Amino acid sequence: MAEDEAASGKKLISASDVVGHASRKDCWVVIHGKVYDVTKFLEDHPGGEDVLLHASASGDATEAFEDVGHSTSAISMMNNYLIGSIKDYVPPSASEATTVGGNDVPPNFRRMPQKKGPPAPNTFLDFLLPLFVLGLAFAAWYYLTFIAKA
Ligand code: HEM
């Protein structure tokens, strides 16, 4: 896919070239190996310009972008800002290395907190509480049926 974009006139950009484009006047973000110039979009971004600036400075905004769960219309908007693809892109999940391309690339220091993962396992209390209520109901029934009537 990255190759398709490259073939359709978008340039190949090395990871180190992305460094230095993380300001309000010049902001690039890397998402799934593609480079987007979002300078003109900063003010209009519904998520705010600060998140874009942070994502830009982090070197690779893929995880942050995915964590937000952008809508399909947001994803189709991205094409308006596409300027190229990262040369020899290594997805952040494919390598645990903190650098994206070379040693001159800043580490991906800002990762959104992971909201994913298995749901919390049932605790013992989850079983104990209904059992307790059942016991209480039984005790009340027993009292009313056998003891109170006597
Ligand atoms: C070219 C890149 C991007 C485009 C075109 C874009 C577009 C949008 C759009 C249209 C929305 C409104 C909600 C939706 O339709 O999903 C949105 C919300 C948001 N975006 Fe982005 N976005 C981009 C990159 C990023 C990045 C890199 C981050 C990094 C964290 C980010 C964080 C957010 C946040 C936090 C919201 C608010 C979500 C909410 O309030 O529910 N976006 N974005």
TrEMBL record:
PROSITE patterns in the cross-refs: CYTOCHROME_B5_1 (PS00191), CYTOCHROME_B5_2 (PS50255)
Transmembrane segments: 124-144
Residue stretches making up the Cytochrome b5 heme-binding domain: 10-87
Subcellular localization: Membrane
Record's signal peptide: none
Family: Belongs to the cytochrome b5 family.
PANTHER family: CYTOCHROME B5, CYTOCHROME B5-LIKE HEME_STEROID BINDING DOMAIN CONTAINING PROTEIN, EXPRESSED
Protein name stated in the entry: Cytochrome b5 heme-binding domain-containing protein
Organism the protein comes from: Oryza glaberrima (African rice)
